[in-house]
Amino acid sequence: MEIIKDDPKSLINVLKGTKPKLKDEVFGQLLKAVSIQQKSVRHYSGPIPNADELKNYEKIKKGLADRIVTMAEKRQDHAQTMEKEHLSTSGELAKTELKVSERSSKRSTYSALFLATILLGLAGWLISLGHAGIGASLITANLVALVGIFITGIKSKKSLQYVDPEEKENKKSEEIAPTP
Hints:
Blueprint lengths: L7 H8 L4 H14 L17 H10 L3 H65 L3 H29 L4 H12 L4
């Protein structure tokens, strides 16, 4: 006797009013057709497995769990060392860039002073030749430009100041901490 596997209602109809021997045959075929599978998936994140996994590793080889934990600790220490070196290198790079920028700023200031001196000399010469309006206009334009450069220079110096990340963090913690 062949059972139709896709239709459970036909199985119920077959079993109604059947002899016990036939029922046993049907159940035997059902047991052959049905298989139970159980899947288990375990997932963990990080360098150290969960406690059950560590126990299993220890069963495989004595001391293996301790080696895994030690390896994870060394890896963490290495990562922290690399992060500190990166921060230190970044700080040194920022200091070097600041020095270069300060030199460039000084050069710009000296160039502006030199140009302003030449323009003032030219304005004086024009006034001495009788061109007072042009000379006065040149002096006024020169003074406005110098004031603008002076103000811009002050603002750029404030933005170029280097602040050590550790000092910045200390200042933040001091601001947060309540005073008695």
